[in-house]
Amino acid sequence: MRSNVVPLHSHYDAIIVGARCAGASTAMLLSRAGLRVLAGDRQSYGSDTLSTHALMRPAAIQLSRWGLLQPLIQSGAPVIRSTTFHYGEQEVTVPIRPEPDMPGLIAPRRTVLDRMLVDAARAAGATVLHDTAVHDLVFDPHGRVRGVTFRDAAGQTREVSADIVVGADGLGSFVARKVEARTLVQGRCSVAHVFGYAPTPAFSGYHWYFGRNLSGGMIPTNDGFACIVASVPTERFDAEFRFDLSAAQRALAALAPGLGSRVFGNGGERLKAFRGTPGRLRQAYGPGWMLVGDAGFFRDPLTSHGISDALRDAEGAATAILSCRESALREFQEIRDSLALPILETTDAISAFDWSLEELPERHKRFSEAMKSEVAVLLARAARDRQVPPIPQGLVTSQLEAI
Ligand SMILES: Cc1cc2nc3c(=O)[nH]c(=O)nc-3n(C[C@H](O)[C@H](O)[C@H](O)COP(=O)(O)OP(=O)(O)OC[C@H]3O[C@@H](n4cnc5c(N)ncnc54)[C@H](O)[C@@H]3O)c2cc1C
């Protein structure tokens, strides 16, 4: 949808910069509660992005609570019922415990997942623009963010005001830069990921392979394909793969025979590469602004947890906004940090690639423990859903001015 054909208000309760996992979810939740929401993304509706998409249990719980897990399964994303870790010759298979509203995990393509979240936001009443870049924030004389200016696909510039501007604009967040959000914690490790797609009808479940300075993954997704990923420390990527991604084939083939040749011999979608960058936890809010998703918290993708973080924090941010209390923003950040810091620490322990195959299972166990604390928080939210609606309906929007 093009912004130049969508009639806009001059003021919104909330403007969201970025409309993928974090932004579209936040827009959906605020709109479901009755707020007037505008979200804008500089990329196109239904476009792909530089990310694999293995969802962990926290993401599946959120999507299930929001009524989106079943539609995603119906989109053709296979239900993942087990995770197998390949530590050299040793295989450890962990079954995924099904729950009444969650038959297993899924790994939908981002073209499917992000589009469905945008559709849900629109169905709830949000205006979501694509091909529309926010290129500045509007500040009042006291330094409070009051709105944004954006440029649409036709090159027209518009200024729109809002009670709160949410930066859901990813790792290189423009909003975070403009508001000078402080970095609270910096991660230690940087891992590069090279990935592509191959038909894999016979495979089921997630498969993760580990070797010296290398890991591989097989992630079944839509249309009978699997995403196949090779991950190496950034220094190794720079030295061996950067200018020759097919070197990843040889590395993967050595790690798991057949894995490399599947994706590289398939002649389908071209390979994509992310060079890596250390994790980072940023200040989550300030006068008139908040950050959600990678904009606020980035951890290395090796533990496949970014989308889970984004969906969890989208709800935390929406709930804080809807409560209209400054203290709720602080609580949002405190809860986010209490869950994010163990995720960051245990992800870094895995991404360091300084382990032996004998040591690695213990690091995976610590990551799994961190995720269990997060799952407990989300299940408590799910239990509350059964008693009261997930977020209050029909908020008096002028109250937002108070935060
Ligand atoms: C290689 C790789 C593999 C990954 N694999 C997994 C995985 O398997 N599982 C998992 O859970 N996570 C994975 N992640 C992490 C996951 O991709 C992110 O955590 C997730 O995309 C964060 O969502 P987000 O909405 O915060 O940001 P993004 O998905 O980055 O979306 C931000 C959006 O903001 C838009 N934007 C930016 N600036 C502006 C602007 N000025 N105006 C308008 N729009 C703007 C961008 O166009 C973009 O569409 C991976 C990441 C990488 C890099």
The proportion of strand residues reads 15-25%
Q: Please trace the helix and strand order, writing H or E for each element.
A: EHEHHEEHEEEEHEEEEEHHHEEEEEHHH
Fourth-tier CATH superfamily name of the largest domain: FAD/NAD(P)-binding domain
Mean pLDDT: 91
How many DSSP H or I helices? 11
Structural class: alpha/beta
Strand elements, count = 18
Any low-confidence stretches, pLDDT <50, length ≥5? 393-398
**Amount of helix:** 25-40%
Q: What CATH architecture of the largest domain do you see?
A: 3-Layer(bba) Sandwich
Largest sheet: 8 strands, mixed
CATH class of the largest domain: Alpha Beta
Number of domains as seen in the coordinates: 2
How large is the radius of gyration? 21 Å
Distance between the termini: 32 Å
Listed once per kind, the bound small molecules are:
flavin-adenine dinucleotide
Form type:
globular
